[in-house]
Amino acid sequence: MTMKIYGSRLSPYVARVWLQTLFKGLNQIEFAPVPGGMGSTEYRRLNPVGKIPALDDNGTIVPESEIICEYLEEKFPATPLLPTDAAGRAQVRLINRTVDMYVLPPLSALLPQTRRPKAEHDPGLIQDGWQKIRKGLAALEQFAGAGPFALDSTPTLADCAMVPMGFMLNRSLPELGIATPFAGFPKIDAWWANIRVNPHCAQALDWMAREAVEFRRKRMAEEAAKRAAGN
Ligand SMILES: N[C@@H](CCC(=O)N[C@@H](CS)C(=O)NCC(=O)O)C(=O)O
Questions:
Q1: Which of 1, 5, 22, 171 has the most CB atoms in a 10 Å sphere around its CB?
Q2: What is the tally of structural domains in the chain?
Q3: Across-strand partners of 60?
């Protein structure tokens, strides 16, 4: 049986694991739809939290993107994406935790705004969310290394977490009036400019850009229908 990752690669958490598999050349890992669909009893039996991604390694289920990445690092130690020294490993984990706790959650809270007509945007909510995201970005600015990758000249799991984050911020926030989310964060801004030179990052970013268009069209239609039904 092949190893499977359940969930759409448009999720920044799934995309992070995808990027790891690209860097490591793990072609045997298949990205598959959630068994039974999101919210289903079938999927909750595998992952009680119900979120994506979850890894299915021949029946061993590992949920949570960070834990999956660490699992794959241990299982496939070739082309390591964690530094060998304790300080470097801590730096990668700190960046990943900052993305997970202080950037993606406030960004997720703003996403429904991007699917509403501009006249229905809530400026207070947007400003509040943006201030929270800025705090997370300020922490990343401090924790990141000299580049060109998130730490130095070698890609790590920190890049796997930050690339999908960068995609989401730069795709969503301009629609809410925040044209250049990385302005004022010179290290992160330079990292974002450099990252596309790497073919794996470029592959993931190009795919996400294409797929996001269709996903968004469907979500907007669903949400407009829900709003209309509520009126
Ligand atoms: N801490 C989780 C977060 C995963 C997460 O929030 N995934 C979202 C998709 S982007 C999800 O599954 N949302 C569906 C839900 O909350 O029911 C991880 O790192 O894997």
A1: 5
A2: 2
A3: 57
Identify the residue with better confidence: 167 or 224. 167
pLDDT score of 15: 98
Q: What is the CATH number of the domain that holds 10?
A: 3.40.30.10
Choice from 19, 31, 38, 51 to test ligand 1 binding pocket (greatest atom count within 8 A of CB): 51
Find the 3 Cα to ligand 1 centroid distance in Å. 20
What is the average pLDDT across 198-208? 97
135 and 113, same structural domain? yes
98 membership: H or E segment, kind and range: helix 86-98
The answer to whether 35 and 6 are in contact (CB under 8 A) is: yes
Q: Which two tokens stand for residue 139?
A: 């922490």
Residue 81 lies in a domain: no
Q: Is 80 within a domain?
A: no
Q: What is the dihedral of CA 190, 211, 131, 181, to 10 degrees?
A: 30
- Check if 175 has its Cβ closer than 6 Å to any atom of ligand 1: no
Indicate if ligand 1 lies below 6 Å from the C-beta of 23. Answer: no
Domain residues for 121?
Answer: 86-230
